[in-house]
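Narrative progress, year one. The postdoctoral researcher (J.K.) led the effort to move from monomer predictions toward full complexes, under supervision of the PI. The following entry was the first complex the group processed end to end, covering 832 residues in total.
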Amino acid sequence: MAGPTPDERPHPTGRRDEHGVRKEPDHGPEPTRRATVSALVEDEPGVLARAAGLFRRRQFNIESLTVGPTTVEGHSRITLVVEETEAGIEQAKKQLAKLTPVIAVGELSGDAVAAELVLLKVRGEEPDKVHAITSMYDGQTLDAGPRTITVQITGDENTIDDAIDAFDQFGIIEIARTGQTALERGDSPTTPGEEPGHSAGETDDDEFTNYDD
Amino acid sequence: MEETDDDRASDPRRRARRGRRRGRTDRAERPDEADAEPTDEPTADAAAARAEAATRSPGTGANAVIAALEAAGVETAFGVQGGAIMPVYDALSASSIHHVTMAHEGAVHAADAYGIVRGDPGVCMATSGPGATNLVTGIADASMDSDAMLALTGQVPSDMVGSDAFQETDTVGVTAPITKHNYFASDSDDVGRTVGEAFALAGTGRPGPTLVDLPKDVTFGETDRPVGEPAAPDRAIPDAEADDRQVEEAASAIQRAERPLCLFGGGVIKGDATEEARAFAREFGIPVVTTMPGIGSFPEDEDLCLSWAGMHGTGYANMAITHTDCLIAVGTRFDDRLTGGVDTFAPEAEVVHVDIDPAEISKNVHADYPVIGDAATVLDQLDAAIGYADAPDTAAWREQCAAWREQYPMDYAIDPDEPVKPQFVVEAFDAAMDDDAYVTTGVGQHQMWAAQYWTYREPRTFVSSHGLGTMGYGLPAAIGARVAADDDRQVISFEGDGSFLMTIQELSVAVRENLDVTIVVLNNEYIGMVRQWQDAFFEGNHMASQYDWMPEFDTLAEAFGAKGFRIDEYDDVEGVVEEALAYDGPSVVDAHIDPEENVYPMVASGAANGQFALAEDQL
């Protein structure tokens, strides 16, 4: 076959980054950020496995994943925290939205309400001090025995981290931590188009205020 | 030299082929079906039969499964009988649906090809366990290529699920990542509706494979509930029309361009948008490259068409894609075999990306102008938004593309004393066959030659395994294509020796059904593509790629009851082409080709498209 060899051919100097975006020559690595994604899903068998499998297969970095029922019977909410580049987060949301049982996907804003729960089992030698720390974090003592005390703390991620640090002085035996769940603040729906729960909509004249107002 | 239409029409061999039945004998024997020829428009009788199936009381879950298929208008299913699927097959015996019993659950490839040719989901069936897992490759294949397909699998009775029962596999779990969606049927009353939904979903929006797992107690169980019309969930039905603002922005980008290039992917064909795509490119004089799945979306014998780009695409297509300043990509997912290294892909181009699936936008290549919608609708929208007066002036750019076509022609050298070149065999069949013949292929060097040296003019005529690259796809796909195609359309399959041997048992099906297909084995006694890479990147160490233990395929074909032919030298070609095509039934041409011939041009894995090699020393 004829024609100039590869080196003799004209070549554009431009380049793209790993996401296929045309870039400047001094382009550095893409920064990552944490995003909390909320997905409203049909509560059918295997839906969590589908979501988790999707994230594993596409190598998205999941920090936490929680799931639970919503106000609508047959619907569940999956809350995911991912640490990705901007393009990665967009792709994660789109892939999640593509799953057939997924009804809507939203990314939560920075001031969304987020909380998680931790159960801590600590050594019981100093019950008074343990109780003091538990009260400081508005926690509850669930079990107190001669050798161990088990407490429950809820709060945002930083609060939980701080509490674990504070309990560390007693010797932590076991921890069970749920991962984050979250809702959008105020009147904004957590996922696009999400309807308010039935009890929230019931008024005397059987009309409910517009959720988006 | 191109033949004229008149030449072809007066060729007695061609006329003899037209109207020949393709061997759907058991269908023909049904009195009510004997005269029914498939047409694009459903007849009143067919519509009535569908409505009847949707509303009748099925009796059992298995009858509901079949009623759902009938209500969906399914005419043919491919599969293998087995333990857990037996109730469904029993119900199938009373149906008008034609079941093609395959020799292996490679039936899935036949269903895949059937779906590609028909444009409706192909249906395949298998039992639980090994039946279901044998479907997995073909389901993954359909998933990668966005082929609409419905797979029905038997399952052990519900109360034994999870107990590692005989022939039990977690089919829903195994196939979840490779299906558009899958279902575990848990209720005889719902199973018919579920099958209908799965069928409809497979063909809705971006097509893909769906699966319904059918526990034996559910198919045995009684139900009086009619299955209803098949319907995809509302949520799964995307808007056909794109957002006006997206269209306008994309249109201005195209107007501003000096070197615009259309990139038509498989989505143009899947979305039945070839007419709109052709009109768009022709109206504005924009050169066209296709992806490999997009082959046939634009006629390859038109000046505007630069054929397909990517790893083994034409040099001129790869030059054009490297130098375009506005890439109008329709229905493509920017696979790495197309893009090469993403860093060097169309580095000066603003990308307009039209796709029905929002998740494809900016997945591999960032879209400067995303336009989400149905390809045909969006192309019409874009066409209207640009307007002829504001079209970009592409004369100089087209001239440049033509120059590249001259510089890097698709070419190969013939020496009459040397072994036959595979490209020559492909071209010989192309010249002897109709423009709208269906070509199926296995995977490897032969697939590339069949893609490079056959001139495709019509959509759905190139039926191949693209994304997954499944060896052995060609023969079962030829069976599926033959069953799907109108009688006057020819079907040929190019296979490699290694690829053919992987599913050669399906030849027994082609013989039993008396399918008029021509199978051409480009036999180089190598896993040729592997050998080519070993020569280029592994110092010629032919580890496990030398297949000099291949059987005589022409003799083997005769053992199956097919007709065998053999090509050893150039002088054999013309006669064998003529005889093989004239033979009414499955014929196998064992074409012994130059074992050292390689596929070029070639873009090395991850390299720049414009760096395509024309010979090994350029890699």
